[in-house]
Write a structure and sequence with these properties.
Elements (H helix, E strand, L loop, with lengths): L3 H10 L2 H17 L2 E2 L7 H5 L7 E5 L24 H13 L9 H4 L3 E5 L4 E2 L12 H12 L6 E5 H5 L11 E5 L16 H11 L10
Parallel strand pairs: 2-3, 2-5, 5-6
Antiparallel strand pairs: 1-4
Helix pairs in contact: 1-6
């Protein structure tokens, strides 16, 4: 279900009955209608970025809710699907900050230690935030807390009011928090553009003696 290192730590951090509740919830919602991402990709972020390799967490709210978009990785969509507006703005800021990235599937980031985590791991078709406060928040909060417990530094990138509320879970002083308005067209011009999250992340990682992220890969 989840990469073993995350699985073992989450199993120790959460009640065993909670995992049975998650499976029951998934059985129910996938039988009742169209839900994104595909069930086999619900835990894709935790599979793609093992605990011990996680050095950046890019926190989203919930998956894209249109056909073919959601991959189980926050903000990422397959290259053959048009980039949604928020992702377009992320790539605009990346181009301004570091350079132009010619594709928008973000899996290469996940492979370099960027945990692309949504606070809710599923969403009903065309119902943004439709599974909020149903099952996922204790699970993804536990992921953030486990990352906070790491002795090696982690960069937490928090875009938008929802993600910024998770700042309270990040208590260790050796981590680095980057926060700004959300890249949505509704808010990107209020401080997301020009915030340089990608170069700031790499500067911190370099100063911490960690390998930088090749954001253009």
């Amino acid at each position: 279900m989840i990469h073993s290192t995350w699985h073992d730590k989450l199993k120790a951090a959460l009640p065993q009955a909670y995992f049975a509740r998650i499976n029951h919830f998934l059985d129910q919602v996938y039988q009742a209608g169209v839900v994104y991402p595909p069930r086999e990709k619900v835990f894709a972020a935790l599979k793609a970025t093992p605990y011990e390799e996680t050095k950046v967490i890019l926190l989203g709210q919930d998956p894209y809710h249109g056909p073919g978009q959601a991959q189980g990785l926050s903000f990422s969509v397959p290259d053959h699907i048009p980039a949604p507006p928020s992702l377009q703005n992320i790539l605009k800021e990346l181009a301004s900050d570091i350079g132009q990235r010619k594709h928008h599937d973000l899996r290469p980031w996940a492979e370099q230690g960027v945990l692309l985590l949504n606070a809710c791991l599923t969403v009903p078709e065309h119902q943004a935030n439709g599974h909020a406060n149903r099952i996922w928040e204790p699970f993804t909060d536990a992921v953030i807390k486990l990352a906070n417990d790491k002795t090696s530094p982690v960069v937490f990138i928090l875009w938008g009011g929802y993600a910024r509320k998770k700042k309270a879970l990040i208590t260790q002083p050796h981590h680095y928090i980057i926060e700004s308005p959300h890249p949505s067209p509704l808010s990107a011009h209020r401080g997301f553009f020009g915030s340089k999250p990608f170069s700031r992340t790499n500067t911190f990682l370099q100063q911490a003696g960690l390998s930088q992220i090749d954001w253009l890969r």
